[in-house]
UniProtKB/TrEMBL annotation:
This is ABC transporter permease. The keyword Membrane applies. InterPro entries: BP-dependent_transpt_permease, MetI-like, MetI-like_sf. Its main location: membrane. Belongs to the binding-protein-dependent transport system permease family. It is a multi-pass membrane protein. GO terms for cellular component: plasma membrane. It comes from Devosia ginsengisoli.
Length: 233
């Protein structure tokens, strides 16, 4: 137990004698899956509800975004903690909690892009031809805000991964039997002096992956910004 790297174990073993490298690879897949699932829930929930509210008129829009502002006022991790405690700890609750907490980001992007697109001639022409606000939003506006939503997804994804790892570290995420990064960090923390390799491996992997995803998201945002500027020029 807590063997150092070598002797057939690339990254050593943990306190239970389990191969750290194997668990790290499994944990990478789990953390990416749960993070991506949470980001997808946030995208669908935020974008769809915002589009529906915007297409139903000003009163519905104001009511929805009052709730959005309330959720945004709370720290994301605190909201997720309260959500999970109110229901039941587990992978499904974590994905749903993070999806709800990050949905306002997509709602705000959808709102801003919707208003921009509704000012374009093609949407005005569609409404003159008899298309209702709902049809214009679904058929004409939604395809044109896809780029903005994908960019926001790339930005939110690493935040979801980190948040999931924090919740798993606190024991509110995935099952304790599953080696997500947060669980691995929590398990290895009591043995950080005698087996630092078991602690450093998931920490470094979490840092590297989220940093890389953050760079990709920022590059995507800059590319979209430059494209929008060229289009409006």
């Amino acid at each position: 137990m807590n063997e150092q790297p070598g002797n057939g174990h690339l990254l050593g073993t943990d306190d239970g004698g389990r191969d750290v490298f194997s668990r790290l690879m499994v944990g990478t897949g789990l953390s990416l899956f749960y993070g991506a699932s949470a980001a997808m829930v946030a995208l669908v929930l935020g974008a769809v509800t915002a589009l529906i509210a915007m297409s139903m008129g000003r009163p519905v829009e104001l009511a929805l975004f009052a709730v959005v502002d309330l959720v945004r006022a709370l720290p994301g991790i605190l909201f997720a903690l309260a959500f999970i405690v109110a229901f039941e700890p587990g992978a499904f609750s974590v994905v749903l909690a993070l999806g709800v907490s990050f949905a306002p980001n997509f709602a705000m992007i959808t709102r801003a892009t919707y208003e921009q697109q509704m000012a374009q001639p093609y949407t005005a022409a569609a409404r003159v031809l008899g298309a209702g606000r709902g049809r214009v939003a679904l058929v004409h506006v939604l395809p044109n805000i896809g780029g903005a939503l994908i960019t926001q997804f790339a930005i939110i994804l690493p935040r979801c991964i980190v948040s999931e790892s924090v919740l798993s570290f606190l024991g509110l995420g995935v099952s304790s039997e599953l080696p997500s990064w947060g669980r691995m960090i929590a398990t290895a923390t009591p043995y950080m002096e005698e087996a630092p390799h078991a602690l450093l491996a998931p920490i470094l992997m979490l840092s590297a992956v989220t940093f890389a995803l953050a760079i990709i998201g920022n590059a995507q945002r800059q590319r979209l910004t430059h494209t929008s500027k060229r289009s409006s020029a």
